Amino acid sequence: MKENIDSKKIGNRKIIIELRFEALPSIIDRKGTLIEAIEKTNPNLFQYWEMNGDGIILRDKEKREEFTILVALSYHRLSFTSWKIDTIESFYANFKKVYEAVQRVLGNINLTRIGCRVISTYPVKAKDYSMLLTNFKEKFPQKFFFENYPCRNVNLKMTYDNGMYQIGLIQEDDAFYEREFQNENTKKHFGFFLDTDNYVTNASKPLTDKELVKEIFTLSLAVEKDIYENLCDL
Q1: How far is CA 177 from CA 16, 60, 84, 189, in A?
Q2: Cα(48)–Cα(45) distance, rounded to whole angstroms?
Q3: Mutual orientation of helices 31-41 and 88-106 as an angle, nearest 10°?
Q4: Please, are residues 118 and 13 in contact by the beta-carbon 8 Å criterion?
Q5: Rounded CA gap, 206 and 209, in Å?
Q6: Is the pTM of this model over 0.85?
Q7: Are 25 and 37 in contact, with CB atoms under 8 Å apart?
Q8: Cα–Cα 20 to 30 A to 144, which of 66, 99, 104, 124?
Q9: Ramachandran quadrant class, 164 (left: phi over 0; alpha: psi -120 to 50; beta: rest)
Q10: Which of 122, 92, 176, 128 minimizes the C-alpha distance to 6?
Q11: What is the DSSP letter of 193?
């Protein structure tokens, strides 16, 4: 699986694959077995775990501000999140191993929704935030909302069939970092961010094809690349 964007051009990145399925109350009785099954997929990666009322959580580090990968499984949802993406291929391979381990324990899982969210930040060519803001506004053909109101930031959200993307500008002290990248290794830079979430539900077609998860993952990466390539000259 080829990298969609050169990693040197990415400031921070978080990818989340989320699977929703018909409720499986039996998860509550199999928490220990599920933890052991997921741990075996990569003992060095999933060293810390905890149980809660709904299910289990596994991660690579004990402290919240240090961990870079997290698996959360409840009776109707599996999410796989990573703040450290060595390669998109290795990310997906780790997810696939976890999902297959869960399937071996639980048996048949009737998916109702497959989603993939990519949140990332990018440094820019502009020498300061003021120039970045000016350059970003120039991307818009109609500027009446910039001219009539003093503009300090721009945040745009677009919703489309089975997905959305949001783009905006960020500064080094932006609250966006605390909200989306709560990690001590976060690179706080001024630039722009991208948040895209793409999904498919069983309302449109049965989610039985084993390749559907990978297709949605690939779609989110394609949206990320397309938007980045239109903004990389800022």
Answers
A1: 17, 21, 15, 10
A2: 9
A3: 150
A4: yes
A5: 8
A6: yes
A7: no
A8: 124
A9: beta
A10: 122
A11: E
